[in-house]
Design goal:
By secondary structure, this protein is mainly α. 58% of the residues lie in helices and 0% in strands. Helix 2 packs across helix 4.
Length: 66
């Protein structure tokens, strides 16, 4: 699951997710645009986002099988 998919499933905007998680909205935007990978986030930010989205952090970094 991508960060954007998880965020949309939670019914949140990027700004709302940033406010809830404490992660900079610019970083969220960069991951969603593919300019950065969720797996490259700091562990702290990865866990903050996963907690805010109520998902396992592994869901944000595992690649979809092709």
């Amino acid at each position: 699951m991508t960060l954007k998919e998880a965020r949309l499933a939670a019914g949140l905007t990027q700004l709302q997710l940033a406010e809830i998680s404490g992660v900079n909205p610019r970083q969220i935007r960069r991951v969603e645009l593919g300019e950065a990978e969720a797996g490259n986030l700091t562990a702290k930010n990865l866990f903050l986002l996963a907690d805010a989205l109520h998902i396992d952090p592994r869901e944000l970094i595992e690649k979809a099988e092709v």
